[in-house]
Design goal:
This protein has about 120 residues and is of the alpha+beta class. Helices cover about 40% and strands about 40% of the residues. A four-stranded antiparallel beta sheet has the order 2-3-1-4. The longest helix has 20 residues. It is globular and about 35 Å long.
Length: about 120
């Protein structure tokens, strides 16, 4: 039985577009390489941090929603901790209400794009 998770990581603002893509690909690879399946992803781009982290006031935010066995989370978070590009991360298990909400939100966004 796979659980559904959402993970957001914040990468250091000094990365180039290519370096950011490389970091994203790496973490997506950790997920898919360990029996996970990516459901959705969003690049939130450069945002101001609520408070400075490592003397930085901004960071690149990236969200990945995925299904995976529980033991994958430790593997993913070890990779986040070892990667100097990542300044913060948060992963949580989505309950059925969170999953439904995320799906509704996505279909609403897709509907708006079609109407434009």
């Amino acid at each position: 039985m796979l659980n559904q998770y959402e993970t957001v990581f914040i990468a250091t603002p000094v990365l180039s577009e290519a370096q950011m893509k490389e970091a994203v690909d790496k973490f997506k690879g950790v997920i898919t390489g360990n029996g996970g399946e990516i459901v959705h992803e969003e690049n939130w781009g450069l945002k101001k941090l609520a408070y400075p982290i490592q003397k930085k006031s901004t960071g690149f935010y990236y969200l990945i929603e995925f299904k995976a066995p529980g033991d994958l989370i430790d593997k993913l978070e070890i990779q986040y901790r070892r990667d100097e590009r990542v300044i913060r991360f948060l992963t949580f298990r989505m309950d059925k209400h969170s999953v439904e909400y995320a799906q509704k939100k996505r279909s609403k966004v897709e509907q708006q794009k079609k109407e434009e």
